[in-house]
Specification:
heterodimer, A: about 290 residues, mainly alpha, MetI-like fold, 2 domains, B: about 350 residues, alpha/beta, D-Maltodextrin-Binding Protein, domain 2, about 40% helix
Chain lengths: ~290, ~350
């Protein structure tokens, strides 16, 4: 944008002035954002382009053909997206009431609640994962307790399967769901709820037809964040799934580090990126129609 | 550290450095390239890094006055990225067993200078290495809980490992085809010296039998022993040092050496490494018998220098894959076979894992 300004010395003084008056805010904003944009360009976009370029090794689409037709990779990609969807739904079910609690209680409860949501967020993922292993194992604290009080005769299969992976991932990702929803809930005008009450709507109707639609932008942001972060998960599924839950990031890692097959790894990454973007666009569409209805 | 102590330490460092300079000058070694302030050695981290520091890094610093900065983890992908971009951060790096041949073939390693690194006291087949420095030996072995399998009723081979009637309880194995295919074939009756080329169909068919009894397919070395300590499994496989450390701390575990599979651990100098000369000097030190003995005493992984056994604790010998008692019970993995077939077999492994 600054370059565009410099390119216009030939324009008449009034023309420049008018352009400047109309676009000043945009130009200044862009200038302010320039460091971050340049950073992303140099350290994110450029390396990503270089990586993608490797997927066309020798100008062929072989790597893509394999990534898109080989049963193994297709199946793992679908599994990955399903797991991400489960995690998003569970996070939403658990996170929405928490956000509501934070947004509607009186001080000091919101502060205390936020600390509790944030605390695990500041702990290393690996530490938390090993913590879950101690809690959820066959001889873990939960199973030991349930066995000792005689509630169970056999330990629950909580670890080294999909259950363990979902528990671990939801724990890590819950704050990403709570905060966007919380931010939107705080902006909901209480007068609208009061108006609905005044017009005689029962509680459930108020929630379904007034409150929930108003918080949908937060839900969209939260679901999108959690879904997209879930898709790239690596260490949590590997450790809590006992090796039985395979996510696509694990297969990409094997190609990168073990076999130095970066072309194929790049193709898998590109397919994953495309699938993620598709889901993102789909989610936006879905929620947009709902938002219009509200 | 008090001011006084700090002063004393730095004075000592200066003295050591000047002594080293004097020594090399008087020794007529004027050909030595200038000394860097530090070199970077990349290893597997954790307990291994501590042992490396005590046995090799501290000795190198003392001898040459060059600081050794340790980094981790070992990462073939990162090595390739460094060499290709010409921005090599490591002076020396460890390389995983199967990765060494791939790294050598991909031209990621600088040649070893065998005039500096003395391999004359090494086993014959390791003496004429071009790029891959033979650091030591480790073995993937069977381990079990001694409170579950009591004296007189203990699994002794891979057929026993597969025998869930006689030795009931959840198992743990590495989440990779390497070693496991060999174990499956041995359990199915193939002798240790007739394994390669591996009969994949037969191996996977045998693995089908054990699959539902494997509670955990471990990913990291630390996990392999922890799973037994936590009783998630009672019988498993691991790299021998991973069992040695908890056993030496009193965990009720035991190693069965019979039919274990040995691999070489390797180090190399990345192509284009800064101060590569001092990398050669570092590997020369790692090749010496005495520090190898010190290293083995700490972590239970022996070096390949045949004289190192003279510096190794008597108590430790039952835990070394190279001890006269354990060595003949095991076999060597065929790195060349794995290098050639690794990617395809890995894919088949993943497919097999997805089957219910």
């Amino acid at each position: 944008m600054t370059a565009a300004v410099a390119d216009r010395p030939a324009a008449t003084a009034t023309g420049t002035a008018i352009w400047w008056r109309n676009n000043r805010a945009t130009a200044l904003l862009l200038l302010a954002a320039a460091p971050a944009l340049l950073f992303l360009l140099a350290f994110y976009l450029l390396p990503m382009m270089l990586l993608l370029a490797q997927s066309f090794e020798g100008g062929s689409l072989k790597a893509y053909e394999k990534a898109l037709t080989d049963g193994l990779y297709v199946r793992v990609l679908i599994d990955t997206m399903l797991i991400a969807a489960y995690v998003s739904v569970i996070c939403l079910a658990l996170g929405y009431p928490v956000a509501y609690f934070l947004a509607s209680t009186r001080p000091p409860w919101p502060t205390i609640g936020i600390i509790f949501v944030l605390l695990p967020f500041w702990t290393s993922i690996l530490v938390r994962t090993y913590g879950w292993m101690i809690l959820l194992g066959r001889n873990g604290i939960i199973n030991r307790f349930l066995l000792d009080i005689g509630l169970l005769s056999d330990p629950l299969p909580l670890l080294n399967n999909l259950n363990g992976v979902l528990i671990g991932m939801v724990h890590v990702l819950l704050p990403y769901m709570v905060f966007p929803i919380y931010a939107v809930m705080r902006r909901v005008d209480p007068a609208l709820i009061a108006a609905a009450e005044g017009l005689g709507a029962p509680g459930w109707q108020i929630f379904r037809r007034v409150y929930f639609p108003l918080t949908l932008p937060g839900v969209l942001a939260g679901v999108t964040l959690v879904y997209i972060l879930s898709i790239g998960f690596f260490i949590t599924p590997a450790l809590l799934g006992g090796g039985k839950v395979i996510m696509i990031a694990v297969l990409i890692e094997t190609q990168v580090r073990q076999f130095l097959n970066w072309g194929f790894a790049a193709a898998l990454s590109a397919v994953l990126l495309a699938a993620t973007l598709l889901v993102y666009v789909g989610l936006r569409r879905l929620f947009r129609s709902d938002l219009q209805w509200s | 550290m008090s001011k006084n102590q700090r002063l004393r330490t730095s004075v000592r460092a200066i003295l050591a450095a000047s002594a080293a300079v004097l020594l090399s000058a008087s020794g007529g070694l004027a050909a030595d390239p200038p000394k860097p302030a530090q070199i970077v050695v990349n290893d597997s981290g954790g307990a291994m890094q501590n042992a490396m520091k005590k046995a090799f890094y501290d000795e190198f610093e003392k001898r040459y006055g060059i600081k050794v900065v340790a980094t981790s983890p070992v990462d073939l992908g990162k090595l390739r990225a460094m060499v290709q971009s010409g921005n090599v951060e490591w002076t020396v790096t460890e390389i995983g067993g199967q990765d060494a041949i791939l790294a050598e073939e991909s031209g990621l390693l600088a040649p070893l200078d065998l005039k500096i690194i003395d391999l004359s006291r090494y086993p014959k087949h390791t003496q004429n290495r071009k790029h891959v420095f033979p650091k030591g030996v480790y073995s993937t072995v069977m381990g079990y809980r001694t409170d579950v399998f009591k004296e007189g009723n203990r699994p002794q081979n891979w057929a026993d490992f597969w025998n869930v009637q006689k030795f009931p309880g959840p198992r743990t194995m590495q989440n990779a085809p390497v070693d496991n295919l060999e174990f499956a074939l041995i359990a199915d009756g193939v002798p240790m010296d007739k394994l390669y080329p591996l009969d994949l169909d037969r191996a996977f068919k045998k693995l089908d039998q054990i699959k539902k009894h494997v509670a955990v397919w471990w990913t990291t070395g630390a996990q392999s022993a922890q799973v037994l300590i936590d009783k998630e499994a009672v019988l498993g496989t691991a790299w021998n040092g991973r069992y040695y450390v908890p056993i030496s701390q009193g965990a009720p575990l035991k190693i069965e050496w019979n039919q274990g599979v040995m691999k070489e651990s390797a180090f190399g100098i990345p192509k284009g490494a800064k101060d590569a000369y001092w990398g050669q000097k570092f590997l020369a030190l790692v090749a010496e018998a005495k520090p190898q003995g010190v290293y083995a005493n700490i972590i239970g992984y022996p070096g390949l220098n045949l004289d190192a056994i003279n510096y190794t604790d008597e108590k430790l010998k039952p835990f070394l894959p190279t001890s006269p008692e354990n060595f003949p019970k095991q076999f060597w993995t065929d790195l060349a076979w794995w290098k050639k077939n690794g990617p395809a077999v890995q894919e088949r492994w993943q497919r097999w894992m997805l089957q219910k």
